[in-house]
Specification:
single chain; 257 residues; mainly alpha; 75% helix
């Protein structure tokens, strides 16, 4: 037990990137990629096998991320990408194969997100991403990231499908919404941690809505580019940005630079 406690609480270098413009660009790209990649594999192969494989891969990459002692762009964004894929599956499977309405699944994932934040706060007395320098805090962080991805997926599909706004209109709606926490922080003195997490959650339906709009057939209001081609294009963009960040170290925390 002492060994586990030491592993969880041993001080490390900061494990998440700096919140630069690159962070938000890559984050939105991963949300769109997660949506189309998940849909492609779930609808092409056995969905239950796909979910199990995705869960196993997610577990491996997150454990690899936890094993590191400092931020690494490749490891971090691979973990985020797999969370994006699996988080989409978690929301989609519940709706498509279990018949749970998006309103209920979005509410359930929202409750899970709030519970994780509450436990994180009670344990660490902070929800700041600038304080991720122990593995215990990092575990809370990745749990929150996964919950926010699943919740954002359900919310995006709810506005596009259940409320019949369509994918493009939903994307525009969330593009407006994502500016609100920044404006509230700037002019209304909204707590910066609250502003960050609100914006972080909104990136999920924002990216996913536009990715679906690009991919789905015209009968669904899309451009009919296909889930596969859109997924490949987004993966290429993500790899390009991460390669740039790994080489330039523009998002590496100052203590590690």
């Amino acid at each position: 037990m002492q060994l586990i406690a030491r592993w969880l609480n041993n001080p490390l270098a900061k494990k998440v990137p700096e919140l630069t413009v690159y962070f938000w660009i890559v984050k939105v790209l991963t949300t769109g990629m997660g949506e189309t990649t998940s849909d492609y594999f779930v609808h092409t192969y056995n969905p239950y096998v796909v979910v199990v494989v995705a869960a196993l891969v997610l577990g491996v990459v997150v454990l690899a991320q936890l094993a590191l002692r400092a931020y690494d762009a490749w490891a971090y964004w691979l973990a985020v990408s797999m969370v994006a894929v699996f988080g989409t599956m978690a929301a989609g499977i519940v709706h498509v194969y279990m018949g749970v309405p998006y309103q209920w699944s979005a509410s359930a994932y929202a409750a899970a997100t709030i519970a994780i934040f509450l436990l994180w706060w009670l344990s660490e007395r902070t929800l700041s991403v600038h304080s991720i320098f122990t593995r215990r805090r990092e575990i809370f962080y990745w749990a929150a990231v996964l919950a926010t991805f699943a919740m954002g997926t359900a919310v995006g599909d709810m506005t596009a499908v259940t409320f019949r706004l369509g994918f493009f209109a939903s994307g525009v709606l969330f593009a407006v919404f994502i500016a609100l926490p920044g404006l509230a922080y700037r002019f209304l003195r909204l707590n910066e941690i609250v502003a960050f997490w609100i914006a972080y959650i909104i990136t999920r339906p924002l990216g996913a809505s536009f990715a679906d709009w690009l991919a789905v057939p015209a009968s669904q209001g899309g451009l009919n580019l296909g889930k596969g081609p859109v997924s490949i294009a987004l993966w290429v963009l993500i790899l390009g940005f991460v390669a740039f960040l790994a080489f330039s170290r523009k998002d590496t925390p100052p203590a590690d630079a």
